[in-house]
């Protein structure tokens, strides 16, 4: 068991290192660099010598391997370097931008899970075939709605028409509800689809009629027997969908004008702010790897068949 | 047996139908019978006879597209056939309970045994956790599970099939119901386990005076265990009456046919002894097969097995799950290299073949698998399935291939019209004929039949066994017949090996092994064959004209 855990953690670290290295190579391969973009701007009126000095200060012209080794060593110590564009340490930028994104992503994921479970249970308990079909077609609808369009529609309807959610000086609750909804809908769709399919499949297993023969009610069967089995494959997908969540956050934060990793990434991309991009990639990879590691480690807790066997065989 | 006359269950003129794409078809027609307290009534029939639908209707568990069209189901004096699901819930588990068919899949894999036994207690009445736990242990002890406290904490995958069925029986008897429906309770279990489970159901019935409705395809089981037998065919009752009467003097032609086809009931027809001096088609000497376990240890699946099969004869390999019979045939077919010993088939030493020789060797040995539903590619036509082996060796012209496929299909009794069909359009018996044709198209010397008739209904089984015997006679085939069913073995085999935990505990002619087994294990196996209660009537197998059933 512990050997398994150590192995999985080792794998996770390897993935992180690979993400760092690949993103480093890709970012270095881009033509131009942040110094040129920022300081060649005629507004600064810097001479060629001054630019050369700045470049030297950022150690931008030293060899790639040296840069790689330096950056890697710094990352290991939690030093993500300086943002060219903002002129502040990247870690300071992350400190202000990470918490809102984590909050958005966390709430979005929670909302997506609740929505998915709600849809799946509703479709299972639907008394008529047409209602079941209607509910089951909801996820396909959800998944085909573009995030930016959904965001704009939500603002249009709830803020401007119904005036339910204020966009000017919103309260702490008002500022998150629409972004969270925007984020949750596309994530909920695949979760609900898989959950519905699993529930339908698990309901055909022989232990379901056995439970029914005990006199259990349909809700009791769904809760005690079907849901516990149906949730297992959903967990894997949930880990993968977390990546979607990060991608979704970029669009959502931009549309709703929120500060966060999304906004930071967007600015860094347009300015070729390499240190920021490198940090964002590594942070995203770390989040992704952590979630999937957690999913892998949670599996044996939820499915006793994956624990080491020590039972009787007679 | 102390059966009282008051019926616990009375089914009157029951009609059950299923709908499929707007078409409603009736599968149970006017079935009437009754079950008295303390009585075991067997519902016997082949697949599609309506026996399971009848049983499901009684406990209100018909599939979603099924419904009771008309008739009455009177349980303890009340007609429950029109009850709502909510009302039925009160009696399910409490008055009528179920022992299901497939213990392997009938327990929730992610809940503990204790939790699943406790569930039935908490559904039907308030009970404290402590009291419930005490009752769970009591029930698990009662059904003969060792270490009940440990079992309650374990999960289903940590228990064997027989132990799981005991747990399911504990659930079924928890509230002392008036009626237990046992739906093929032992057909997924090994014979010795089957016997112990049936004994347990019998003991509990005697203790509590519970009535049992036993649904089974196995006439031997019905003969041994029931007071009354109801024979169903095509949803209609063919015959019902006291078990002894029905078996001794069957009234309907269908019952007579079932009786004559049931290997456990038919009198063994002695096979002519093998004349000495026949060349050996297959020789296995001191076969040993080890497997590496993830823990680094090795597991010896087959330990020193030797036998010789003369050409044109049948050798049966008998054993329960885990006995090593599958490992043995995998080695014969060249799917794995033996750890020790030698396998000779014709000129080939199977263990020392390189990959090129191994391909040629495959023509000599062909396999027919147990499950005719899973062993055929559902997207290939019957012709393509039978033809495929021919494409794997040196090219054969198209006309020649077509000719050979048509010839072999004809040989195994498949109508030519079926060749362009897909497997799903075929019955189980027809599929197994396709599998046999596929094995024979390469003209092999040895055919390994891995439980090849175990999944078939008795009448179909009898036809396939006849076909196999005929093919052996005409083509001089050598069979290795793997089976858990000693009754079938007695019918078809010349020699037999009995395997137990990887060792060969008995080896000899069928006659020798059945009359004077050298090991206790073999004797236990022979005793466990159901149908022992039924005196072997002098029914010869071909006394009745058989319709095309497969």
How does this structure look, described?
The complex is a heterodimer of chains A (314) and B (550). Chain A has 314 residues and is mainly α. Chain A has 2 domains: 2-76, no CATH class; 96-306, MetI-like (MetI-like fold). Chain A has helices at 2-29, 34-39, 48-57, 64-76, 90-125, 129-143, 147-161, 174-202, 207-213, 218-256, 261-271, 274-302. In chain A, helix 5 (90-125) crosses helix 8 (174-202), helix 7 (147-161) crosses helix 8 and helix 9 (207-213) crosses helix 10 (218-256). The radius of gyration of chain A is 25 Å and the shape is flat. The model of chain A is unreliable at 309-314 (pLDDT under 50). Chain B is of the alpha/beta class. Chain B has a domain at 101-176. Chain B has 19 helices and 20 strands. The interface between A and B is medium-sized, with 29 and 39 residues.
Task: Please write out the topology.
The complex is a heterodimer of chains A (314) and B (550).
Chain A lengths: L1 H28 L4 H6 L8 H10 L6 H13 L13 H36 L3 H15 L3 H15 L12 H29 L4 H7 L4 H39 L4 H11 L2 H29 L12
Helix pairs in contact in A: 1-12, 5-6, 5-8, 5-10, 5-11, 6-8, 7-8, 7-10, 8-10, 9-10, 10-11, 10-12, 11-12
Chain B lengths: L6 E14 L2 E14 L3 E5 L6 H8 L7 E10 L2 E2 L5 H7 L4 E4 L13 H11 L5 H14 L5 H6 L7 H13 L5 E5 L7 H18 L2 E6 L2 H7 L2 E6 L2 E7 H6 L4 H9 L18 E13 L5 E13 L3 E5 L6 H8 L7 E6 L2 E2 L5 H7 L3 E4 L13 H10 L6 H14 L16 H13 L5 E5 L7 H18 L2 E6 L2 H7 L2 E6 L2 E7 H6 L4 H8 L23
């Amino acid at each position: 068991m512990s050997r398994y855990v150590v192995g999985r953690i080792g794998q996770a670290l390897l993935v992180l290192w690979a993400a760092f290295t690949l993103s480093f190579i890709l970012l270095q391969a881009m033509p131009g660099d942040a110094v040129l973009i920022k300081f060649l701007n005629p507004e600064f009126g810097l001479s060629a010598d001054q630019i050369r000095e700045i470049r030297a200060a950022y150690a931008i012209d030293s060899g790639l391997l040296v840069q790689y080794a330096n950056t890697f060593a710094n990352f290991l110590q939690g030093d993500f370097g300086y943002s060219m564009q903002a002129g502040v340490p990247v870690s300071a930028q992350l400190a202000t931008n990470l918490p809102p994104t984590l909050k958005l992503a966390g709430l979005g994921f929670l909302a997506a899970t609740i929505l998915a479970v709600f849809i799946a249970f509703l479709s299972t308990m639907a008394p008529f075939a047409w209602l079941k079909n209607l509910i089951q077609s909801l996820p396909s609808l959800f998944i085909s709605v573009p995030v930016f369009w959904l965001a704009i529609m939500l603002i249009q309807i709830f803020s401007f028409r119904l005036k339910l959610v204020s966009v000017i000086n919103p309260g702490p609750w008002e500022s998150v509800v629409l972004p969270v909804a925007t984020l949750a809908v596309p994530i909920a769709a695949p979760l609900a689809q898989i959950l519905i399919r699993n529930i339908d499949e698990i309901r055909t297993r022989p232990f379901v009629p056995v439970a029914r023969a005990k006199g259990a009610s349909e809700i009791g069967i769904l809760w005690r027997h079907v849901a516990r089995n149906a949730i297992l494959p959903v967990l894997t997908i949930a880990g993968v969908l977390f990546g979607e969540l990060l991608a979704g956050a970029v669009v959502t934060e931009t549309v709703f004008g929120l500060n966060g990793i999304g906004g930071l990434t967007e600015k860094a991309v347009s300015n070729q702010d390499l240190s920021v991009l490198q940090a964002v990639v590594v942070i995203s990879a770390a989040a992704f790897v952590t979630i999937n590691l957690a999913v892998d480690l949670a599996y044996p807790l939820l499915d006793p068949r994956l624990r080491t066997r020590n039972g009787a065989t007679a | 047996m102390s059966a009282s006359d008051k019926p616990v269950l009375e089914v009157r003129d029951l009609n059950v139908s299923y709908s499929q794409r707007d078409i409603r078809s009736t599968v149970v027609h006017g079935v009437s019978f009754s079950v008295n307290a303390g009585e075991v009534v067997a519902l016997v029939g082949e697949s599609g006879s309506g026996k399971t639908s009848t049983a499901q209707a009684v406990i209100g568990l018909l599939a979603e597209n099924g419904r009771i069209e008309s008739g009455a189901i009177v349980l303890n004096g009340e007609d429950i056939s029109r009850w709502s699901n909510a009302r039925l819930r009160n009696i399910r588990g409490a008055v009528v309970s179920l022992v299901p068919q497939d213990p392997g899949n009938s327990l929730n894999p992610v809940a503990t045994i204790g939790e699943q036994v406790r569930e039935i207690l908490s559904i039907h009445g308030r009970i404290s956790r402590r009291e419930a736990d005490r009752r769970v242990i009591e029930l698990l002890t009662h059904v003969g599970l060792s270490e009940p406290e440990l079992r309650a904490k374990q999960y289903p995958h940590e228990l064997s099939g027989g132990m799981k069925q005991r747990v399911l029986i504990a659930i079924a008897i928890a509230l002392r119901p008036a009626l237990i429906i046992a739906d093929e309770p032992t057909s997924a279990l090994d014979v010795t386990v089957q016997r112990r489970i049936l004994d347990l159901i019998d003991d509990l019935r005697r203790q509590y005076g519970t009535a049992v409705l036993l649904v089974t395809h196995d006439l031997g089981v019905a003969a041994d265990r029931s007071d009354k037998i109801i024979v169903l065919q095509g949803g209609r009752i063919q015959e019902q009456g006291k078990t002894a009467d029905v078996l001794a003097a069957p009234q309907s032609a269908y019952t007579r046919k079932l009786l004559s086809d049931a290997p456990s009931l038919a009198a063994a027809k002695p096979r002519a002894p093998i004349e000495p001096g026949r060349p050996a088609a297959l020789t296995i000497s001191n076969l040993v097969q080890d497997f590496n376990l993830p823990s680094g240890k090795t597991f010896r699946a087959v330990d020193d097995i030797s036998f010789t099969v003369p050409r044109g004869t049948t050798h049966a390999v008998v054993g329960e799950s885990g006995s090593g019979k599958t490992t043995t045939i995998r080695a014969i077919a060249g799917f794995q290299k033996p750890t020790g010993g030698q396998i000779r088939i014709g000129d080939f030493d199977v263990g020392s073949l390189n990959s090129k020789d191994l391909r040629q060797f495959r023509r000599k040995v062909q396999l027919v698998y147990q499950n005719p539903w899973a062993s055929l590619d559902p997207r290939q036509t019957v012709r393509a399935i039978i033809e495929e082996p021919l494409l794997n060796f040196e090219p054969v012209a198209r006309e020649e291939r077509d000719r050979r496929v048509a010839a072999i299909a004809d040989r195994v009794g498949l109508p030519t019209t079926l060749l362009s069909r897909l497997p799903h359009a075929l019955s189980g018996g027809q599929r197994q004929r396709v599998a046999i044709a596929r094995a024979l198209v390469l003209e092999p010397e040895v055919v390994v039949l891995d439980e090849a008739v175990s999944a078939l209904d008795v009448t179909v089984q009898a036809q396939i066994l006849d076909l196999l015997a005929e093919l052996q006679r005409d083509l001089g085939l050598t069979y290795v017949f793997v089976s858990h069913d000693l009754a079938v073995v007695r019918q078809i085999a010349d020699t037999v090996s009995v395997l137990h935990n990887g060792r060969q505990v008995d080896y000899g002619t069928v006659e020798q092994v059945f009359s004077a087994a050298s090991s206790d294990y073999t004797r236990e196996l022979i005793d466990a064959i159901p149908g022992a209660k039924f005196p072997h009537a002098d029914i010869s197998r071909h006394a009745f004209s058989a319709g095309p059933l497969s």
